Description:
heterodimer, A: mainly alpha, ABC transporter involved in vitamin B12 uptake, BtuC, 15 helices, 76% helix, B: mainly alpha, two-stranded antiparallel ribbon, 13 helices, 2 strands
Amino acid sequence: MNGFLNFLISFPTLLHSGIIFGTVIMYGALGEIITEKSGNLNLGVPGIMYLGGIAGLASTFFYENIYCVNNGVQPSAFLCIVMALVAAFLASALGALIYSFLTITLRTNQNVTGLTLTIFGSGIGNFFGGSLNKLAGGVGQINTLVTSASFRAYPAKLVNALDKVTEKLHFGLGTLLFSYGFLTFVAIALAIFLWYFFTKTRTGLSLRAVGENTGTADAAGINVTAFKYLATCIGGGISGIGGLYYVMNYIGGTWENQGTIEALGWLAVALVIFATWKPLRSIWGSYLFGVLYWAYFYIPGLTRSSQEIFKMIPYIVTIFVLLMVSMRRKKEDQPPASLGLPYFREER
Amino acid sequence: MHISKRTNISTGKAWLIRAIAILGALIVCAFVIFAIVKMNPIKVYISMFNGAFGTNKRIWVTVRDLMILTCIAIGLAPAFKMRFWNIGAEGQMLMGGIATAFFMINFAGKMPLPILFICMIVTSIVVGAIWGLIPGFFKAQWNTNETLFTLMMNYIAIQFTSYAVSKWENPPGSNSVGIINRSGATKNAGWIGNMFSKGYNVDYAWLVLITLVLAVAVYYYLTYTKQGYEIAVVGDSENTARYAGIRVKNVYMRTMAISGALCALAGFLAVTAVSHTISTDTAGGRGFTAIIVAWLAKMNPFVMILISALITFLNKGAIQIASDFGLNEYVSQIITGIILFFILGSEFFINYEVHFAKSHKE
Lengths: 348, 362
């Protein structure tokens, strides 16, 4: 009983780390939702997240630690943020462009191309990450302090004031609600925007038409190729922001060659299924995944081996959702009907 | 510009296109390498060749890795021929590896070697078949998306491996199982090279032999047996298969059980013949690379050997350049990625003809 009480008390802390973790995969998943709505199943998400992470890190590393140091100027926080975001978005979109060119124009198989992109992206990420480490003087020596701090900045006054209100309840309301970098809130806004885009706008409807029945969309005069290219590249760019968030907010502006981003990328693919291709569902879905991922840390009495079993839960839950979706056949929960299928106008 | 499907293309021309693609990829890689190390790319390629084939030992290591990769790809062939996207080789392989390690750790010295081996092989096959059958069953019954299902199964298997490692870790606290049966009374028990020739290990020779036998067997199964034919028909068109009286659901389940079992055999080999230990690195992403190998080889086991050889050569070579020029070894993934992009793209020019519109003035 006591253990349960302790767990209850630590739950806000758990939720807090769940939200930070969840935001990484929320970006990955939101990008992949856009991609999949156009009928492209891009299994290159982990690779794309690597590209986003390393591009953001490398650009600000050279700005902060080389350009600013050499010229003796103070790095500007605003520039750091813009530079990191632009670099991460462009690099990831470029990765997605390779995928698009191969699958859409050269008609290669989507699964195989996506997996190759994952190999390529993780190679680029870890190679340059490792080289940056070396340039900075050793493993874990890269530090983009200003950038990371500006990504992590939150309204401290508001948080403290709110924390005081709930002090007696043994948890900090302000910490739970507002102590996150701005990207956390941007992710929520993006999810809401995407919901609006998919359901209420003409372009969103056309995009869904491309993913549901490409032939019909083509016949209706929608430029299928343009939609697929744009959706995949923009989606890739957004997924890449997840990699940037991991590098800047989660590990604090450095690089580690541990393959964590790859595991997170696959978790993002899992989240797309869990959210049944709905942006709004990915908000709480990602936080739930985060909570499940960190829960082992807060449950007393778990040995290291049972922790490993515990970490399976997000994947098992995802499989369960996948099964329910396919068994209940509810129309609105289905994957886009032409997901993963190639479309060649001449071959219909 | 107008694109049309080629009706047929001579094998020679197809291979010429592939060769051009590989050449193109090597040129692009040369630029990348030059940009990074500022060295003559030809010298770099020579250094790569040395890395893969420079010494006897290196040749064996290259052969070993290429055989494991081929073995996984062979396991994927039946599923892919059926157009069933088994992305789960990584997990199926690990499950086979766990089953093998389980017997090596717990039963070495407690049962005669041949029986130990039978237990190792049979359990890996059974566990792998089950791991493959689960997504196969749900695909057959409810048309559950197999790509996503098998992908998730990988991570369950990976966590399961971490669990097994933490249970069996040796020495305690090292978070690794270490070489199983390295010394003592059970020295080399469960190492395949030790099965018939005590004291002298010929692990890699067994690995090559078993993989080649599997290649022939799977080729025969897919090309000349009734079941293989059924797989091909289901892969081409499920409806045709149904009209022809093929029990599609059974084919799905049977084939996935076979595919899972074969991938698990690769895991068995990786443990008993190569690493003699178990960790998540036992698969180490090769389950994913094998998907690309199987696809590029168009499910032909013998072509798989060639493609695995190319990928393994690049991998070993890149690791060599990395150590020669003080880079980190992830450069191999970049090079592999570029080459695979090119080979994938080249298939387009093999399958399609591009006609450029000619002006009609004349």
